[in-house]
Amino acid sequence: MLVAERYDKIVQLVNERGSIRVTELSELCQVTEETIRRDLDRLEQAGRLRRSHGGAVSVKDQQPEIPYFEREVTHTEEKKRIAEDAIKLIQPKDRILLDASSTAWYMAASMPDIPLTVLTNSIKVAMELSSKEKIEVISTGGILASRSLSYVGPLAERSLDAYHVDKAFFSCKGVHLERGISESNELQARIKHKMVGMADQVILLADSSKFGVQAFTHVADLTDIHTIITDKYLSSELLSQLEEKQISVKTV
Predict the structure, then answer these.
(1) Alpha carbon of 182 to those of 2, 107, 205: distances in Å?
(2) Most buried by CB count within 10 Å: which residue of 66, 84, 122, 167?
(3) pLDDT digits (tens, 9 = 90+) for 62-118
C-alpha cells in the first residue's frame, strides 16, 4: 500500500467510526504503531483528523463552539437562577473551580466577596472576579479558544494537575442518560474531563435544553457527577430517571 493510499484509508476509517485507536489502525494497515503515529501527526497537520490520546477522532461532523456572546443570551434567566443557586453551595475558604461556561460567568458576577480560591480557564470569569479583594483567582493559561474566551490544550490540562479543589462547577453541551456528559469539541471535553477528576464534589450546571442531547465528544459519565442544578422545566420523567441513578438534582 502506498503512503497516500494509507492516509486515505486512515481518514476513511476515522470518519466511519468517529474515533479509532493506534493499535487497531496498525493491524488494519499492517504497519507499526510508530508509523501510524507519524501518519496521524501529518494528517492532523493537514486538518483531516484530530489526534486524541491513543488514537484519532474525526473532524468531519465536529460542531464548532457557539461563540460566547451567543451563549450569554441563550436561556439567560434559567442560567442566572442556576448560578444563584450554585453560589449557595459555596462556603468561605472553599477552593473551587469554575469552567468557561456562561453559567459559571453568571456565578462569578454574583459571587459575594468572601475568602475563596477560584481556579478557572475562563478569561471572563477571571476578569469578573478581579475586583473582589478577598477572592484569590488562579488562571490555567494555555491555548486561547477565541469563541469561548477560554484556555484549552495541553498546557491548560497540565496546569490542572497541580491542584485539587473542594468543588468544581461546570456546564456542557449535552446530558444524556445513557451516554453521559458531552461537549462540542475535543479540546473543551478534555479539559472538562480533567476538572471532573480533581474535585471532591462535582456540580453540573445545565438548563433543561441540554438534556437528551449527545454532543460530539464524551466528557464524563453521569456517575461522576454529585449534583445537577437545572431549571424547573426539566420533565418529571427525567427527574425520576436521574434519581434512580442516585444523582442529586436541584431544580430552580
Answers:
(1) 37, 21, 13
(2) 122
(3) 555 555 555 544 568 899 999 999 999 999 999 999 999 999 999 999 999 999 999
Tell me the C-alpha to C-alpha distance, in Å, between residue 218 and each of 99, 179, 184, 196, 214.
16, 8, 9, 12, 8
Report the C-alpha gap between 152 and 223 in whole angstroms: 25
Query: Using alpha carbons only, what angle is made at residue 227 by residues 62 and 151, rounded to the nearest 5 degrees?
Result: 40
Beta strands in 73-198 (DSSP E): 95-98, 116-120, 135-139, 143-145, 150-152, 165-170, 174-176, 180-183
- Bridge partners for 21 per DSSP: 55
pLDDT digits (tens, 9 = 90+) for 68-82: 555 544 568 899 999
Q: Take residue 98 and report the three cell numbers written for it.
A: 469554575
Beta-carbon contacts of 92 under 8 Å, excluding residues fewer than 6 positions away, are 114, 115, 116
- CA atoms of 63 and 58, how far apart (whole Å): 11
